[in-house]
Amino acid sequence: MSDADETRLRRTEEAPKTGIVHLGLGAFFRAHGAVYIKQAMARSGGNWGIVGVSLRSPGIRNLLAPQEGVYTAVELSAQGLKPQSIDVVSDVLVAPENPQAVLDAMVDDSVRIVSLTVTEKGYCRGGADGALDLDHPEIENDLASNLPKSAIGFIVRALDNRRRKGLRPFTVLSLDNLPANGALTRRIVCEMAARVDSDLADWIASECCFPCTMVDRIVPAMTPDTIARLHRETGIHDPAAVVHEPFRQWVIEDSFVDGQRPEFEAVGAQLVDDVEPFENMKLRMLNGTHSAMAYIGSIAGHDTVEVAINDPAISAFLDTMWQEEIIPSLVAPPETDLADYAAALRERYRNPEIRHLLEQIAMDGSQKLPQRILDPLFENLAAGRPAEKLMTVVAAWFRFLSQRADGEQINDPISSDLCAAMRGHADDRALVLGLLSVDQVFGPYPTDQISDALVRRFQAMSVQNIQQDLGKVLS
Ligand code: CS2
């Protein structure tokens, strides 16, 4: 036996019985949702074991399978490492290897919830109105074949099979950073179902539940260094470990098929009637400033959130943006002080143990900016409130894109459209107008109101100016 075999994690108890299929078993879910579910089962019981599904590659399955699905969630703070063993994942399936096995798992009567973290782009929306993108290659496949590729395709086919078998539907629980994520998922699932069978679409609309949620925990990508540190400091050898900050929040609309769910409230999740004020607060105050740091910080040569927040010019910029532009655009959730929330975010960003790469946050800007930056920006303009800082973030995104315009380096599902929009433009103004004409991002907004200001900000945001005086560029 090798050293690795001797120290390998194993189950100490039998795997829990399955109640959940989770689509998109990335680090975020393993460090957030799965931890709540483990704790809720430990506190209140219930059969809520999770079959995890990787929709693309076998990487996570290959790490988890030798450990029987057991992994370590490691809290990182000034107090050091705090490991917690998570043993609720009973199996991991890799969809492209065997899509039928994924459908079989979802159609099993024991499954009452299908949750998903597939990131913004995983919802395959297209066009300005956010409808299902029927030209998306995965959606084309899923409408033509019984073996889906997209998360939405799996949900529709599985619900179809359940209905044919006379089973109850499952609850579809989206944990992605999108406004009204449940309502949005309901809409595109019903759009696809209507193309499969109109009775199916009616059944889903009347019987299925799609609760909205707000999820929050900062989960930086794992690194070989942290895996080695975990081993060194705790003796745990776990190549499948995930790391996270101490903070966590989960606000869930209490709307589940037949009321079937883990007792989330027993372990600190908030079950509420209306998630909207929570999700807008989090999307704009946290994710919006994250994106601001990602683009401005990258242009300024910073690599992590902690480095960016400790840059006095960026820190002052975020303060003004929170106070003058984001908070005025929000309705505070019950018992929440938004200024306190901003102060707490600042502390979370400053956690020196968390190496959260700006590059990780900068990806998929086309999918993130609308709800994080553009919605408050245009709401402010319509209400006569200031929006200069939010415009500066858009200009920073444009500068970031123009610096990486060779296509290879833009990590975004519509990178080819973004590059086409930037190509061959004679001057800065033409480039800015080109990007503003990308419909998937700017279609719903009156962009003529911001074009002149954006050109000025884009020009001010040259690398040279930034290196000379970032404070002036951001003022
Ligand atoms: C980040 C989020 O990568 C990103 O876009 O803004 O992943 C963020 O860390 C989480 O939403 C925090 O809950």
Automatic annotation (TrEMBL):
Keywords: Oxidoreductase. InterPro entries: 6-PGluconate_DH-like_C_sf, 6PGD_dom2, Mannitol_DH, Mannitol_DH/Oxidoreductase, Mannitol_DH_C, Mannitol_DH_N, NAD(P)-bd_dom_sf. This is Fructuronate reductase. Residues 19-264 form the Mannitol dehydrogenase N-terminal domain. It comes from the Bacteria. The keyword Magnesium does not apply. GO terms for molecular function: oxidoreductase activity, acting on the CH-OH group of donors, NAD or NADP as acceptor. Residues 274-433 form the Mannitol dehydrogenase C-terminal domain. The keyword Manganese does not apply.
